[in-house]
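Shipment paperwork, digital attachment
Item: protein structure file
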Amino acid sequence: MPSTTKSTSVKNRKGLVIGVLVAVVALLAGWLSQYAVNGDDSGSGGGSGDNATLHGKEDTSSGDPALMKLARRDGGDPLARGDKDAPVVMIEYADFGCSFCGKFARDTEPKLEKKYIDKGLLRIEWRNFPIFGKGSERAALAGWAAGEQGRFWEFYNTVYADKGNEKNGFSDGHLRDIAKEAGVKDLDKFDKDRASEAAKKSLDKDRNEAYGLGASSTPAFLVNGEPISGAQPDEVFTDAIERAAKAAEAKKKDGAKGGKG
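Attachment content:
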């Protein structure tokens, strides 16, 4: 009898997992049907000129609740910046060898940092999504290792500051040079960490999350569950953040009213 109960419990859990996966697939099928990216043959998610072209959803008060749950809000996450309780979370799926990711890092993110992150309104969570081969994978693992010494964002800035790193092979020696420039103190630990199982598991988790969303190019973003594809003009991000912030504030006020009632 106990074995039957255990078997039933396992079946119930499997049924729940399958149900969640079906829901996510359905949601993201909707995402893919709403957003079309006119890409060049670089596979970076960019279109003609410097930006990808986004079609579809024009305005929304908030993103999809299921996608919003992908925000981890881990206060100890070295691959995140901003208050873990910020009303808006932007998840960035990106590749260190992606030119459009570099464009976002150089041109747009500093403005978002000053306008929203520094004021506690926005949190950015990085997800490693290397799609350009082994060099990108090595860079992703190296970024994670830099994060183990509290220098992920310095590593991030150092990589993207040099356009020569776009489509770079990211050899071991080059990655050590980047880490040193980024202020990583213990390079032996850095080498050990980037070769660790923990680094590989983290990379696999991020990459599988991106693929599970149907993402196939970089950069890709979720702003409180609202998808944005490519290194869009600044106003695309600021508009999405403003909408998300207003929706979060409205939800907070509704919750307060409900509590009083």
